[in-house]
Amino acid sequence: MATFLYKLGRLAFRRRHFVALIWVALLTLAGVGAASAPPAGSTSFSIPGTEAQKAFDLLEQRYPGMSADGATARVVFKAPNGEKMTDKANKATVRKTVKELQSGSEVASVADPYAGHAVSKDGTIAYASVKYKVSGMELEDSAKDALKDAGQDARDAGLTVEIGGDALTATPETGSSEVIGIAIAAVVLVITFGSLLAAGFPLLTAIIGVGIGVSTIAALANALDLGSTTSTLASMIGLAVGIDYALFIVSRYRAELAEGRGREEAAGRAVGTAGSAVVFAGLTVVIALVGLSVVNIPMLTKMGVAAAGTVAVAVLIALTLIPALLGYAGRRIKPAGEKSKLLGGGRTPKKPGRPNMGTRWASFVVRRPVAVLLLGVIGLGAAAIPAASLELGLPDDGSQPVSTTQRRAYDLLSEGFGPGFNGPLMVVVDAKDSDHPKAAFTKVGDEIKGLKDVVTVTPATPNKAGDTATITVVPDSKPSSATTEDLVHAIRDKGAGITSATDAKVLVTGSTAMNIDVSQKLNDALLPYLALVVGLAFLLLIVVFRSILVPLKAALGFLLSVMAALGAVVAVFQWGWLSGLMNAEETGPVMSMMPIFMVGVVFGLAMDYEVFLVTRMREAYVHGEKPQQAVVTGFKHGARVVTAAAVIMIAVFSGFIGSSESMVKMIGFGLAVAVFFDAFIVRMAIVPAVLALLGKRAWWLPRWLDRALPNVDVEGDGLRTDADRRDPDEEKELVRA
What we know:
Elements: H1 2-14, H2 16-36, H3 51-62, E1 72-78, H4 88-101, E2 107-111, E3 125-132, H5 141-150, H6 152-156, E4 160-164, H7 177-193, H8 196-224, H9 228-258, H10 263-290, H11 298-329, H12 357-367, H13 369-384, E5 392-393, H14 405-417, E6 425-430, H15 437-449, E7 454-457, E8 461-462, E9 468-475, H16 482-502, E10 505-509, H17 511-545, H18 549-574, E11 590-591, H19 594-622, H20 627-654, H21 662-694, H22 703-708, H23 717-725, H24 728-736
Parallel strand pairs: 5-11
Antiparallel strand pairs: 1-3, 1-4, 2-3, 6-9, 6-10, 7-9, 8-9
């Protein structure tokens, strides 16, 4: 591996014009494809195997044209103080609005509030239900604009008009904080390298990689049914790893220059050593992201595969474009320890020969391994305590900021009709195999009326064939509450008895039931997913480190950091600690996708630091240093770079906290906190403490396994042989270059 990458790095350095042309061509091709591709349509949200999805599929068959998964909207009206919605003038205004809503080509139906008894008991609030033929993501912008404008006449007449529902689904905005994150990354790179040019390379290559990845996603979005969140995730992860991978190689290049090697030779060795770590670190991220497919949620699978593709591009750019750019830079890239004149280069160091911060820290940890280990484990354990109270769910309009019309409509409906009105349950009764369908419909309705937490049960509405009916159930609690979840399970339990008595099948669906099913599916998939990802990465790390205990320690450390990060997410987004700082106006259940998504992404990113830091330790150990000294040497060369990489990742992920999309906001915060815990507590404290305690045992591997495993030579041991055999005249030519 190291020898192949060494040759690739030297080739890219020599043929830099050709390499740069290839990447510019790929970026241009992806950009043209994105610009010429048809606009992205809907991201069809289907959850195969769940009861809620089966009910939706059944409704599509038995109620042709019903558009069971079509977008819905509720236009909510509130009368001015002292007036009623039943007043003659207000009635006329509302009916005029309903007529305007019916004119849209994508509108399937609009329910008149007065014909459908959609007026609150006190007469102050009413709503019109709008049903569309397509889903919220497929809805044309003109239809959304018409929905927003329809209530303007009513507003002019003095009524309060707010609009809720998934018809107003919008593309998330990340805000200016993402730019701030990139700016912080630039500052960190300048401080790390002491050179504006060297700092610019990781940023430039990361932006090129993300540009290719996101443009490719945009070009294929319509054909592959990719949503807006897919590109947001790809840019988030692609930007972070792209900067980090380039940082690793540029840093190693400068270290090789400091040892007196020629520039082409230094580029080859940087790609052969740090590049090997980049390849395996990238592989762990790709495994983690592609592994999301085991959950069997199509949307999550597409997000993972798209982000994995962007990571793969970042790896290829780091291995080829970075050495090419180093060739262009020539002598303007200084050896490690030297700064450019603009940033104070050429000055005499205040304390020559003083060990760097990484060396001093590692020496301290090696002297006090037990104290550092206990402090790190106890600290992460304390941070993980809130995770024991984790409640999962999916966001609804109640989690929107109070400044949005969706949230205000949600609050008005809760005020007028009760909190459960925002999440009605749809019960589908399939009586095709029943001898008495009507009796089955009646029995289902009567059974549900006898359950707790039920406010309203509408009469059954059969289809034309009379073999299927729908019943709407309004709970007494809000959609995201545990009480509503218990009601869904209670209805399903009753359905099992009804099926045995009447041969009619009872299915519960609707957005609330779908959210509950998604959460359950994700919970069930978490352990198999964790076993798959950690297991594959564990095997990969055995090959890299040729050790059993080092990969095991890496996996256990990851579990500590991810649990602590989940605890932080619960504390902020569920308990409300510092929620104002995060602009999380409404606390509630944590996004149901968050745990499994965090496990996948954080594991991949955590292994970046593990691979880069520990390979330097193993490199020193293999080349003859004692285990404790190898730990110090690894930190001497790698701590500064890993610290910079972690700060950059934290800055990039934190930039997404400013997103208007609650899912993106929560993911950005969770990943930023997880990187902080994993990089600065696990990898920089717990890892050296454990390795110091284990000593030589850390690098133990059974002989039979050592013979069976392929030798990937991440330490670059083969490069020494190649260098020794090289013609001295060739070495002189390399130095001149």
